[in-house]
Specification:
The protein is built from six helices and 14 strands. It has 267 residues and is an alpha+beta fold. It folds into three domains: 67 residues; 89 residues, no CATH class; 85 residues, no CATH class. The protein has a three-stranded antiparallel beta sheet with strand order 1-2-3, with helices on one face. It has a three-stranded antiparallel beta sheet with strand order 4-5-6. A hairpin with a 2-residue loop joins strand 12 and strand 13.
């Protein structure tokens, strides 16, 4: 066997070849390959990445084959920062970069390093997500941004870079379902609307927490009338249970809306 390569066998008896490299007391698997020559070439690529300091993330694309892009990034991080991380993370000063082939560099605060060291970011139709406990979660969910949120309307990136997910760069405009920030004559307010064969204006409120409770109350009124449509419930983080109940009682739903849900009741 060539250096760094060993033979393995699949359950059906078919042979394949694995390779690994040891650096800094760490044995690193480099993947599996159908032939010994391909496994050896991957091993030689890893050696080159470790030993040639001229190879960086800027010129990596032509330097890592036949290693996977992800594995090449982990090797460069191990080489330069002396820390091995199994996901394609490169440590920076005060933050870290997560690299996705054909997508580019994503920036995160170090507070998220433990999470993304053990959760791989995936891409589907341009959406970034992770698998966690058997579920798929968009990475924006970590900032309290809902799946239905629209960039520019419900949240924005402060520096204009939509690959920069550091907390100071994420500005959440609308946190709750059915609630939109609006402005009139320089005054900001929050508008609550619910969709039932068209949008019904429930009211305009001084803050988004009250507006979110108003949406919940409007949804409850529809359910109480027998309307079976599923409405997302807002979890209002700013209120205690007692404050939520008091706010809920104080909100008067528009008569036009209450008349509509009564007319469309199946009873």
């Amino acid at each position: 066997m060539k250096k760094g390569v060993f033979q393995a066998k699949k359950k059906n008896g078919e042979l394949y070849y694995r390779c690994s490299i040891t650096r800094g007391g760490k044995k690193i698997s480099l993947g599996s390959y159908p032939t010994e020559d391909e496994a050896s070439a991957a091993y030689q690529s890893a050696v080159r990445l470790y030993e040639d300091s001229e190879i960086t993330l800027l010129n990596l694309s032509s330097q890592h084959a036949p290693l996977s892009f992800d594995k090449a990034v982990t090797i460069l991080n191990h080489r330069d920062n002396r820390i091995y991380i199994k996901t394609p993370i490169y440590l920076r000063q005060g933050y870290f970069s997560y690299y996705l082939k054909d997508f580019g560099e994503l920036k995160f605060d170090n507070d998220d390093l433990f999470y993304y060291s053990s959760h791989r970011i995936l891409v589907h139709d341009g959406h970034l997500y992770v698998n966690d406990f058997g579920m798929q979660y968009g990475i924006l969910a970590r900032f309290g941004i809902k799946n239905f949120a629209v960039a520019g309307r419900d949240y924005r990136f402060a520096n204009g870079d939509d690959h920069d997910f550091r907390y100071q760069n994420i500005v959440v405009i609308n946190r709750y379902h059915g609630v939109r920030q609006a402005e009139k004559q320089g005054r900001l307010f929050y508008e609550t609307r619910i969709h039932l064969n068209g949008d019904y204006l429930i009211g305009r409120f001084e803050n988004d927490s009250i507006a979110a409770v108003a949406y919940n109350k409007a949804a409850d009124a529809a359910h109480d009338a027998g309307i079976s449509k599923k409405f997302p419930q807002n979890y209002v983080v700013d209120f205690s249970a007692e404050e939520y109940a008091g706010t809920y009682r104080s909100i008067a739903l528009p008569e036009k809306y209450l008349d509509y849900v009564k007319r469309n009741s199946p009873d």
